[in-house]
Amino acid sequence: MAGGASAIAPARREAVPEVDVSAMTIVRPRRWGRIAAVAIMLALIAWLTKAFAEGKIAWEVTGEYLFWPSILMGVVNTIWMSIACMIIGIVIGVAVAVMRGSPNPVLRSVAIGYQWFFRGTPVILQLLIWFNLALVFPRLGIPGLFEARTVDVITPAMATLLGLGLNQGAYTSEVMRAGLLSVDRGQYEAAQAIGMSYWASLKRIILPQAMRVVIPPLGNEFIGLVKMTSLASIIGFADVLRTSQDIYYVNARVIELLMVAAAWYLVVVTILSLGQARLERRFGRGFASGVRDR
Amino acid sequence: MTRMETAMEPEATLAPGLPIVSGRRVGKLFGDFRALTEVSIDVEEGEVVCIIGPSGSGKTTFLRCLNQLERIDEGALWLDGELLGWRLESDRLHPLPEAEIARQRRKTGMVFQRFNLFPHMTALQNITEGPVQVLREPRGQAEDRGRRLLSRVGLAEKASSYPKDLSGGQQQRVAIARALAMNPKVMLFDEPTSALDPELVGEVLSVMKDLARAGMTMVVVTHELGFAREVADRVVFMDQGRVVETGPAQQLMDDPQEERTRNFIRSVLGRE
Ligand SMILES: Nc1ncnc2c1ncn2[C@@H]1O[C@H](COP(=O)(O)OP(=O)(O)O)[C@@H](O)[C@H]1O
Ligand SMILES: [Mg+2]
After folding, report:
1. Buried b vs exposed e over A228-238: b needs ≥16 C-beta within 10 Å?
2. B137-to-A69, B132, B148, B266 alpha-carbon distances in Å
3. Domain ABC transporter: where (chain B) (predicted)?
């Protein structure tokens, strides 16, 4: 008898052996692939650890500077700058995404123009332009109301805030637009049908559903931004990289202090990832996802 | 019919002699495509009107015009004595601002074919969203009313369930409660049971029958001819964007005057 045919329909009832899957021992399959992968990883880690331990790094110096007061100030600066720029980015991003979906052609053009400029030029260039704004406009303000010298207003922190915030807004707006597009049209119509205004339905119905979709890419953007703040060190913003550099200019412990900065970036990014997982659970209520996500 | 006995008091805003819903030679174009042509449908207060007709005949489009999800191109739509979408001033039309359109929309409750419940809210939150956000009702009061509406549609114990954990029939009943929570003058139903498994159709229809018996004015697009025969005061048959025939439910179904109506009714009954 052909094996294929018997698999589909056993010829006779008595030909099938008595089986109850709950009453028998189950042989677990050996996952040779996994075992091999883990072995290779462990070997690599051991090798790297050994290399760095024997290499020319004075780890005790790294340890000594890890909680150095000026380093901690740099960490605090990196964190608040990242958060502030992300808030600016999200506010602008939502506004620009909504403007791009607006029936008003003026709003749409403004949104597209903004994205075009800020995505079309390097961030580092934008930072330098903001920082050197005084060369174009020596004084800023509204005549009669308040006025100030530009160099007093555009501090390194202010230039970073403007440069990174506005740049982040341009990228976040595309993430937000993807989120808005992901919400079914019927949701918007159902909101209208109960008499909600356009703005109320965006705020209460559309954006909360879009949030679920945009949190993973936004988390990505935020992590990118944390590291992008290090660019501000070139215009003199005292972030963790800048403060590390300031120290190694004096004591010449270059790698040791770069390791200090690296450790702090990893700590911040790890905390952010944990926060992201919490947010995903919060906005995922009411949705059944088809993909296992952890 | 029992409904006639429970007819509600006429509203003060109702212009004398005008039906609560009145479509006058309504036309709707999508680009070059004509979806509605000279559709005239009147609905009296407390009346249940069923609209039947083949797919693509413009039934959904007519309901969407009534709810102002679409704007009409010809004719006029009147609801509760008001011209929908425009302000008439010395022979000129001024488009209504969005807030006014939203106010007019609140007079109709819409039940969609695919439910369109808000997935990020529980059944109760779906129902209280409109009263709290739009009518500015205190939350506690809105929740009390929401729970009463949920038990009216037989889902008292599902208040804190999310839509994904409800069956299609349960979701549609929540959607009906959500529309009722806005105290609409007219309920619009767009094929409310055609996305449901056959065994779930009955529970939704029975909620709708209760509503009709309580005197609610209803415009129902449906393929459920049994429901139309039992509940509707009048049935409108549409084809290719036009009203072909309209009449009392029994008469239109047992003795249709038009060939097209006869063919349609035969084809639907043949399917069952
Ligand atoms: N937004 C739209 N754009 C273009 N054509 C549309 C649109 N909505 C509906 N139509 C067309 O109008 C006709 C009537 O549609 P519809 O009102 O949905 O019919 P029914 O509900 O009776 O099945 C159909 O031919 C449909 O393709
Ligand atoms: Mg339809």
Report:
1. bbbbbbebebb
2. 54, 5, 15, 48
3. 21-265
- Which amino acid is present at B61? T
Select the residue from A185, A194, A197, A201 to test the B interface by mutation, using most B Cβ atoms within 10 A.
Answer: A194
DSSP B8: P
What domains sit in chain A, N to C, each tagged with a CATH number?
80-232 (1.10.3720.10)
Name the DSSP class of B9.
P
Neighbours of A20 (CB within 10 A): 6
3-state class of A169 per DSSP?
Answer: helix
For chain A, helix (H) and strand (E) counts, in that order, are 13, 2
- Please report, for residues A60, B20, B148, B235, the alpha-carbon distance to residue A209 in angstroms, rounded to integers and kept in the order given: 49, 36, 28, 39
CB A276 within 8 A of CB B108: no
Q: What is the pLDDT of residue A103?
A: 81
What span, in angstroms and rounded, lies between the C-alpha atoms of A262 and A207? 35
Phi, psi values for residue B57, rounded to 5°: -85, 0
Task: Note the residue count of chain B.
Answer: 272
* Dist. CA B208–CA B190, nearest whole Å: 12
CB B67 within 8 A of CB A196: no
Residue with tokens 């690296």: A262
- CB < 8 Å from B in window 86-145 of A: none
Strands of the sheet with B74-79, listed across from one edge: B33-43, B21-30, B74-79, B82-83
The answer to whether the CB of A97 falls within 8 A of the CB of A176 is yes
CB A267 within 8 A of CB A261: no
Residue B16, pLDDT score: 56
Q: How far apart are CA A39 and CA A180, in angstroms?
A: 45
Nearest residue of B to residue A208 by CA position? B120
| Separation between Cα atoms, residue A102 and residue A95, nearest integer Å | 10
ipTM over 0.90 threshold = no
Residue written as tokens 């996802």?
A: A289
* Cα A176 from Cα A9, distance rounded (Å): 54
Rounded to a whole number, what is the distance in Å from the CA of B123 to chain A's nearest CA? 11
Two structure tokens written together for B15: 């212009």
First to last CA, chain B: 27
pTM reported for the whole predicted model: 0.80
Which 3 state secondary structure label does DSSP give A279? helix
Domains annotated on chain B, with CATH: 44-68+98-269 (3.40.50.300)
